[in-house]
Amino acid sequence: MARPRKTQQIDIRARAIAETIRLLDEKAATAITLSEVAVAVGCRAPALYTHFANKDALLRAVHDAGFRMMLEEKLALAARHEGDAFARLREGGHAYLRFAFERPGLYRLMFSPPPLVVTDENPFATDAGAACLAALRSAVRSCQAAGYLPAEDDAQTAFTLWAAVHGAASLVLQDRAPAADRDGARAAAMATVDMLMGFIGATRPPLS
Amino acid sequence: MARPRKTQQIDIRARAIAETIRLLDEKAATAITLSEVAVAVGCRAPALYTHFANKDALLRAVHDAGFRMMLEEKLALAARHEGDAFARLREGGHAYLRFAFERPGLYRLMFSPPPLVVTDENPFATDAGAACLAALRSAVRSCQAAGYLPAEDDAQTAFTLWAAVHGAASLVLQDRAPAADRDGARAAAMATVDMLMGFIGATRPPLS
DNA sequence: CAATTAATTTAATTTTGTTAAGTTTCATCA
DNA sequence: TGATGAAACTTAACAAAATTAAATTAATTG
User: Fold this and answer.
1) Which residues in chain A are contacts of B109 at CB distance < 8 A?
2) Distance in angstroms, CA of B102 to C1' of C16?
3) Which of A151, A163, B35, B115 is in the most buried spot, having the most CB atoms within 10 Å?
4) Contacts of residue B137, Cβ cutoff 8 Å, sequence gap at least 6
5) Statement: the CB of A44 is under 7 Å from strand D
6) Which of the four pLDDT bands, split at 50, 70 and 90, describes residue B35?
7) CA of A156 to nearest chain B CA: how many angstroms apart?
8) How far: A86 CA to C20 C1' (Å)?
9) What is the pTM of this model?
């Protein structure tokens, strides 16, 4: 049965991405073989080449899927904090870190991505990572409207905040946090968000 | 001449590390082959196995060398800013980013390291990365003594600052900074340091 | 100076990404 | 409806690169 009957077809593309995400929590991307992915999917390795140009393209698809997941969470969370801009920023930071800690392998791939596969379209046209940054930027503007933070340069402020939180996640996932155990390291990252929020809180001129 | 005469011996270990650092600025670690390294060193690939257990061990040695280089720079800079704790922190941030931007390939390897090679010794006993964090922590304490920052928890503060600056470097090296060109992205990272210093400056109670 | 150890080489092996060739199913169109 | 071509797989073959084995020569040591 070279070509499977339509009734027993599986969505190789979607399953390969999902299984790779799962495998990423067991081993690094370089250690994952296409055979492994194929077995998990339920096909042979060359079948993957019908859906992805090569291994890097698969990893890039996983990378993109990661950012789409992150964006979804971000938008859902924003909807839950319509009112309080300051709280939205804080909860956004905490949620970001939970995302990273729940899927450490995926997070690592998202931020040390495989070389971009050459395509004819603009890679950033559909980049969910850029959309995540845009969402953060909108939260920053809400905070500015509430009197926090320097009034100008919301893009720069959003970048700074993302850098800080991403940096905390990244260091923790590499065991570079000054903490004895895993939970201590994660707590240190969470505390980073709180410290930043403390700084931001201090930027608000005292009520007169 | 299977074994080279002592007069014409080369220090394969040191040269392999140096040449790999150089190659890292041309291509990613996964794309560097041991043959390439061997050619650059002036030997054959299997000779590398006398000095490194495997490719990961070589990359780990490069990773460690990177942190030692960073530590040296950090200590040299600290010596130049004995007096002014605030300036030391700011200049330290800028120097950190210059380090990352001058050696992007090495920096990437330092923060998305290959799996740790199993050895019998404690990997953190000689970890220059930990020493870098300790140096930053001492700069934080100086700043606290000068009246900046929350007074307690220097370790947490140092971690937060490192996270922010590392995060900025990491995002820029992945083209995730909101800037049109390379120089704009790097400027955004530098501005991150300035913004943090602004926050820190604001933590000092106004002179009465 | 003989014997062992060390540092390298070339040759062989293995793993894994990728391509080629072959097979079955699906879709289209006369 | 049946032939034909395209699509989605399979198994087989290939190629590159990491690793190991075997062989060779130099250094060291007793």
Assistant:
1) none
2) 34
3) A163
4) B154, B155, B158
5) yes
6) very high
7) 7
8) 60
9) 0.94
